[in-house]
Amino acid sequence: MVETPRRKRTFRRPSVIPGFGISFGYTLTCLGLIVLLPLAGLVAKASGLGLSGIWGVATDPRVASALRISFGVSALAALVASVFGFLVAWVLTRYRFPGRKLVDAAVDLPFALPTAVAGIALASLYAPDGLVGAPLARLGIQAAYTPVGIFIAMVFIGLPFAVRTVQPLIAEIDKEIEEASATLGATRIVTLTKVVLPPLIPAVLTGFALAFARGVGEYGSIIFIAGNLPYVSEIAPLLIVIKLSEFDYGGAAAIATIMLGISFLTLLAINLIQTWSRRRFGYV
Amino acid sequence: MSEIFSPAYVPSAKPDSVASEGAATRAVLIGIAVAFLALFLVLPLIAVFTQALSHGLAAFLDAFREPDVWSAIRLTLTVAAIAVPFNVVFGLAASWAIAKFEFPGKSLLITLIDLPFSVSPVVSGLIYVLLFGSQGLFGGFLLDHGIEVLFALPGIVLATVFVTFPFVARELIPLMQEQGTAEEEAALTLGASGLHAFRTVTLPNIRWGLLYSVLLCNARAMGEFGAVSVVSGHIRGLTNTIPLHVEILYNEYNFVAAFAVASLLAALALITLVLKSVLEWRFSGELAGGRAH
Amino acid sequence: MTYAAGRSRIVRAVALSLLAGAGLWTGPHPAAAETALLNVSYDPTRELYREINAVFAEEWKAKTGEAITVRASHGGSGAQARTVIDGVDADVVTLGIPSDIDAIARLTHKIPEDWRTKLPNEGVAYTSTVVFLVRKGNPKGVKDWADLAKPDVKVITPNPKTSAGGRWNFLAAWGYAYGQDKDAAKADAFVGQIYRNVPVLDTGARGSTVTFAQRGLGDVLPTWENEAYLVLQEFGADKFDIVSPPSSIYAEPPVALVAVNAERKGTTKAAQAYLDFLYTDRAQAIFAKHHYRPIKRDAAAPADLAQLPEIKLFKIEDLQGSWDEIQKRNFDAGGLFDRLSRAGR
Fold first, then answer.
1. CA-to-CA distance for B45 and B263, rounded, in angstroms?
2. What is the pLDDT of residues A202-246, one digit of tens each?
3. Which helix (H) or strand (E) element contains residue B9?
4. How far apart are alpha carbons B236 and B244 in whole angstroms?
5. How far is A227 from C200, CA to CA, in rounded Å?
6. What confidence tens digit (pLDDT) does each residue in B9-49 have?
7. Judging by DSSP bridges, how do beta strands C130-135 and C220-224 pair with one another?
8. Which chains touch B (3 or more CB pairs under 8 A)?
9. ipTM of the complex
10. Residue B77: helix, strand or coil by DSSP?
11. Contact present, C130 and C251 (Cβ < 8 Å)
12. Best exposed site among B15, B128, B236, B249 by fewest CB in 10 Å?
């Protein structure tokens, strides 16, 4: 197990700690076999269609509308999750009230609750005869089996990301700065918008990006509540499943590759936000 | 209960200082936040249990008389029993390599480990169909040798490992980075072997973080739906995991049974949350990022 | 720091959870080492094959002394065919529409291309048709296919790309319209009008039934006759009515042996016996009991037959040609359904 460090190797900085070779090798092997190879297979399959073929799939009206729904609704849901997530994080960190810790623990529920369970639960609540769906229906809003249902499911799964990324930063805010700002005559609103909020923006953006990425890919909780109607409430992941059922492997791979590309871009955006924030505020 | 409501761990809680909102604003904000969480998060959880018990306890228990439910439970436990330890070993290796050594391309490596987080579960299943399906890259080879991957245990395990891949590594990497290498170096200087140093120095330092990540990894492994749905084949009593069985029951108009089986997973989620909170409250200093919230 | 204490606590926790796991393992367990068959079927046959499989196992045990388990998997017929193509180890397939078995034969050769010749009646052990399920009292007055195209009628039907029931519905509507004017272009347009009335397109017949019956969407659910009766049983006859149109399609859900899989698993004999069993009087009576139309009417209980009304049935092959042509014309990429759904939006 213990590997004698070979001094000549320049790849890593020398260290007395052993086990680099085996742990690094094992990591790369697992990563390669479980993640990279299968993803490469996907891209290879899609590239069999050629760039124009993938473009053809992406611009097919049904695919385009599914992508539009997935990305559009997810962005909207991530926005709402970010706003309420910020509020929840603020309330949980700044205020004392009975049951606060229980509320705090409940925020992570969507992490722990399997998506299919969330899906049937949300569908039963928001159906036209459900507990929440019935009053909404009287207001003329049909939630389940419309894009509203997709939105609700996406807010559900995105919320913990929005809360958990800003929460630690709110906890770290130096109260003395706020007090100083107040002492200098700033109103509470001015203090909040000019002093407290700006350093939190990168975290809020990161939370938004995470909730967005998760919402775009989400499948289990949505299919039960969405209605799955092409051009109206059909999401891109479902279209992949449908393409598979139609024996259209190339089409499925093409949609998957497009979604993968967007995932990459989202990750990249998060990294850029964090680099920028580190430069601007000195922390992530 | 006093433990739960104790504000002791937030040192700067001075609610009435100038650096806070007025009491009325606070009450309104707390009200909105709690109402929002209750509507979006807690209500669905309650719905699962009320629907499961809507026809009485007897009907609820009847759902568990089906042998198919038990084979789904067994399969789910088997999958988790393989996928979680695999990810623990991977997570330990990856965090050791990344946290204890300096080498170029480290952040790229971390990004790649993170990748499965942002891949749609359906895509996670699809990639294995494209590899191992009979029309896939290795499909012909596997078929000729009579090896079943897709629509059998290996495929389900692979898809589960993929979606839970970053869970352990991502918790342990920052934790080990925070702890540095001084303690291990000291142990090695005193003559301990590398493995011994790992067991007696590193492992105890990260034990709560490890347990924390195992908890979340396990919850996801047992609850995964999208990826497993694509690779499972939905064979009753054979390749149905608990979440898939919930869907099947739901499609058979067996709503009480569907929610009864779902309540099993909801209970698992609750247990996970409780254990997780306990870890956060008691050992926050020994978790990555000092999760004190 | 008390490393040792911490470690032993972890060890104890792991041991405890392992014990709990082992306890669950010893729950109800199917007896090992017996022959197991896998029947990959389509959506609405869940209740049917649960009974067929139990009766077959019982007869097989009486005849050979061997225990046998028949497992079933259900879903949209196209989706199910896809799983067999991708490697699900089915011994037999009992799908909703012949073109799905053709697809398996063409893409994998696990089923011989001439599978229709291997069993009596071209592999069709029972038939069915498409009827309408409407809300109690039939508030929209749906009587015939033409009513489905009216602008104020919402129709719930599954996706013809993935569901056999969806394809039969599609073809039945087309066949009705063609029967009116003998004009294919007019029939195409008529089908397009119906699909403009569809608010939800589920992937399987079961999904559509749930949408219509449980979620309360739509005015009419054209569906398998057997599925319509099942809804009355499951959801109560006081909520829905069945309307049988004057004419509908002669739907033939076929069965076939997946020869290559069965041979590899050494289950050919049992799988063949299972398929032969479907043609016996006992199985035919079970089909009728579940509201399918048995091919041997005299084997069925008269009470069951009395429930199946006289409907003028047409065969789509007589109107559109071979199944290859039917599939290509209507459902393949760029086919009629694709053109309609593009034009409809």
1. 9
2. 899 989 999 999 999 999 999 888 877 777 888 999 999 888 877
3. none
4. 10
5. 6
6. 444 444 455 667 888 899 999 999 999 999 999 999 999 99
7. antiparallel
8. A, C
9. 0.88
10. helix
11. yes
12. B15
